[in-house]
Amino acid sequence: MSGKRPFRRRSTLGTIWKRRDRWAVKYERLGQTHTPGYTFTTEKLADDWLLNEERLIDRDQWTPPAERRAVAEKDATTLGQFAAEWIDNRTTPTGGPLSGRTKLEYGRYLSGRLAPLAELPLVDITRERVDQWWADNEDAFGMRRNCYQLLKELMRSAEDRELIVKSPCRVAYASRRKPSRSRAERDALIVSMTPETITALADHMDDRWRALIVLLAYTGLRIGEALALTRADVTCKEDNGLPRWTVRVRRTVSKDADGMTVGDTKTLDSRRIVPVPPHVTEVLSEHMAAMVGQAPSSPVFPAVPRGPRHAKEQAMLGTPAKHRTGKDAVGRTDTRRPATGFHAAKEAVGRPDLHVHDLRRVARYLWTKAGMGDYDAEQLLGHSLPLVQSAYKVHDIATLWPSMDRVSQLAGWNPSTHDAADPSPALPARIPEPASTVEAPAISPKLLNRMTPEQLAATLAAMSDDDLDRVMPHLRPERLAAALTYTPESKEN
User: Tell me, which fold does domain 77-160 have in CATH?
Assistant: First the structure.
């Protein structure tokens, strides 16, 4: 065998050898081979390491070097390092990754208010440090709360992974929100948003956004859901001389590190089909004829008219009014920068405290005035419902058209004078809706037919007369007969 053999020297405890220009070392103990996990620049350093291992054994303080390295690595892990891994691997309740917007916000918290803690090892973040951080950030209540919630989640996860003994986040009432307005003030604002005010708000917007305001105020869509709509998501079908429009919510626009992304909705329950009130279809039809491309993938609210890219939320929101300072104020007689977009429109109609999300509340309020039930309203909003309701209640869009008609009537729409012609023949009827307006049963007939006679008898006994009238035609005769004749004695027999 050619080549020069590597130099090896056996010490009292282990073996030292030269590997190229560095020195390696190992020793045997308790039936296992142990190494430092790295090599040395000189033979003396390698020998010193072995000597230290001998001292630990002699003092009965020895533990495997790999375990000591793991402890040292754990102790050296900073909050920022742990957070980066945590954010990358974090999943939503549905099992998907965090949205780009959420990752962006978490990164902003860690590089902003949490920066002093992010530089520290996890083991050095004590309860006293957290309490002091909380006191130091009292100037920004909302931001402080959001940062604390992230910190609390991170430290709880670190505790679960045994990187720390116990989470230091124990600030009393830190999770409480400090509302910018009372509930009474918010409710008064929502009630004041009459159809006339909604129209005025929309009229003060740029032509690109007028239909968006009307759509949000009467359908309850989230702003990101509305901006993610495409032509293929809008369906028109004529029913009893009236065009019945629906929008299919299946995606949402959100911020990410690259600026914007179109991804999955907030939850699975957010994926839904929403009926559009008749008077809104008139505004939406004009908008789509003027602003939306003909391709099925064309965004309903594009960045530029008939463009292929979805608009950003900020383009619609605009900027609030602000007093100019510094160079921006030099040479100007008016040092106040005027508001733009939605901020300008809400000031123009005398609703400066209005938020875009409030339009969802406005829609919910108008639906209630029109006689829509709570269950259907929550379904249209895309809220997650209690398990019992989601399992037994049936949501049928066909039953909601009378409520939508009444909503439009509140806005001054008159069905007798409405043109029955299809306002947008280019829209394909991809999602046909049944013409029936019969109210859906409170409990699914399929589930009723699967019940035992005892269960069915008890369920029918608790129903109202109206629910019974709706359910009875759907029950199988043998199931109904067994339930009606059920007695505890018949069960024993």
Answer: DNA polymerase; domain 1 (1.10.150)
